[in-house]
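Not sure how to ask, but would you mind making up any protein sequence you like and the tokens describing how it folds?
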Amino acid sequence: VQLQASGGGLVQAGGSLRLSCAASGRAFSTYGMGWFRQAPGNEREFVATINRSGGTTLYAHSVKGRFTISRDNAESTLYLQMNSLKPEDTAVYYCAANLRGGEVVPAPLYDYWGQGTLVTVSS
């Protein structure tokens, strides 16, 4: 499985961005998916996860109510809509796939990772 994240960029505080993660292969609909982020000097942290059907989602407390994770299984693409962005959201954002198919929080339980896309939020 290859994952290609895109959509990052520079945005002012209060603005919005939508990240995409395109997956190769035809088994995308069987994977649970997640978004993680890593700010400079920090460890990678969980942002959001979604199960294989898209029916269940979980969010980190810091992004709940501002970010929305979704997926299009027909297009093999994962999304992260980010609204009301804050400077502390600045990080490299990674998408990841887990073969369990469920909504999974711990990073070590993910099997495949994308290369990351940089989001910078200016104050």
In short: The mean pLDDT is 96.
